[in-house]
Design a protein that fits this description.
The strands form two sheets. This protein has a four-stranded mixed β-sheet. A three-stranded antiparallel β-sheet has the order 3-2-7, with no helix packed on it. It is globular and about 50 Å long. It is built from two helices and seven strands, in the order ββββαβββα. Helices cover 18% and strands 32% of the residues. With 142 residues, the protein is α+β, with helices and mostly antiparallel strands.
Length: 142
Amino acid sequence: MYSYDYPRPSVTVDIVLFTDAFPRREVLLIRRKNPPFKGLWALPGGFLEINETLEESALRELHEETNISDVQLQQIAAFGHPDRDPRGRVITVAYVGIIKSEQQKVAAGSDAAEVAWFPVLDLPQLAFDHSDIIEKALEGLK
């Protein structure tokens, strides 16, 4: 085992899943079941497991929290502001995907109390820096 001189941050993935409906595009959000930000809406996502790739983690978290699978995701950006997560130093890698809203039945699971589609122009208050992540994803669609 090596000794490290530098602290090691945690890594998460967050998934921005849009419907293909234009101009009334929607984004899939989960209501957080656990702290921090319990009860607030957030993007599906979670912590990277030590034996999986970033994309595997994104697909796993999306399925665990929303029951959606078999969707193509593309990495869009990393977000690493030191204060973005009250649990400690957490860097997230964001992914984006587009599906037909009726393509798959959504169901809350894992640490999601609820899951729902929201119009991108009328979002609720979001946990963490998820409004910034959605904004970055929308820029990529233009």
